[in-house]
Design a protein that fits this description.
Layout lengths: L8 H29 L5 E2 L5 E4 L2 E4 H4 L5 E6 L15 H8 L4 H5 L3 E7 L3 H11 L5 E4 L7 H4 L7 E8 L2 E9 L9 H5 L40 H14 L2
Length: 246
């Protein structure tokens, strides 16, 4: 192993500052990419798609769970996939282990679900074994047809993002391959949606929902129905902003 130089603290801090400048540039570029995603055209979803959930048959609209946005991850867990029937695909399973607490995503009017072709009893067994809690549906259409074929995930994993206007559904974004390895955090999910993080600092089209950053955050077991900010937390943020001159 060829080791880097061993330097003084002053040299180390200088090197860190140099790298930090480059990292901040990447952050700004990533923000610009997310802003471009929010300006992607929408594709109307005209077909009806069938899924099976723990309580029976559901539609794509049902997967929104009443929220405005939906992210569907196509996970490979079914006969013929390496690991069946004890495990899902190793890559999809690694991704599932990274999924953060979904209450924060739900507070931004967004639902994440997983979808596979395995029957529901197998999915429930797998979730229990692995400690996963995300909603996970069965694609209930003949192989070679249906949701996974139409949305580019019949042969490979991927995240599809949707938005709804009433009962009308639109596809807004799609990411797969190495893009999937970044998924799992609240921010990575919101950054691929049409509405983004919904915070005032973002570059979004006029009229998009936006609130103050930080203030909508809450403990995952204390979000209200409307996910309204807790006035006590708002006071903490206001005090910190004044102190740090944010």
């Amino acid at each position: 192993m060829e080791k880097p130089l061993i330097v003084s603290q002053e040299e180390w801090l200088a090197a860190h500052e140099n790298l930090l400048a480059k990292e901040k540039q990447v952050t700004h570029e990533r923000d610009a990419l997310a802003a471009a995603r929010r300006r992607m055209p929408w594709l109307a979803v005209e077909k009806q798609y069938a899924f099976e959930g723990p309580n029976g048959k559901v539609s794509l609209l049902d997967l929104f769970e009443g929220r405005r946005q939906l992210i569907v991850y196509r996970a490979f867990f079914e006969p013929g996939v390496f690991g069946w029937p004890d495990h899902a695909c190793r890559g999809c399973s690694l991704g599932a282990d990274q999924v953060s607490h979904l209450s924060h995503l739900n507070a931004r009017d967004t639902t994440l679900v997983y979808a596979s072709r395995a029957p529901q009893p197998d999915i429930e067994r797998l979730k229990k074994r692995m400690g996963w809690t995300m909603p996970w549906y069965t694609i209930a259409e003949p192989v070679g047809t249906g949701f996974d074929v139409d949305f580019g995930v019949d042969q490979w994993h991927g995240h599809n993002a949707f938005i709804r206007e009433g009962e009308s559904i639109f596809r807004t974004y799609f990411v797969n391959n190495r893009g999937d390895e970044n998924m799992g955090s609240l921010w990575s999910y919101l950054d691929i949606t049409a509405l983004g993080r919904q915070e005032k600092w973002e570059d979004s089209p006029a009229g998009y929902p936006q609130t103050e950053p930080y203030k909508w955050w809450n403990w995952h077991d204390e979000y209200g129905a409307a996910a309204s900010p807790d006035p006590r937390w708002v006071k903490v943020i206001d005090n910190a902003s004044a102190t740090l001159n944010l």
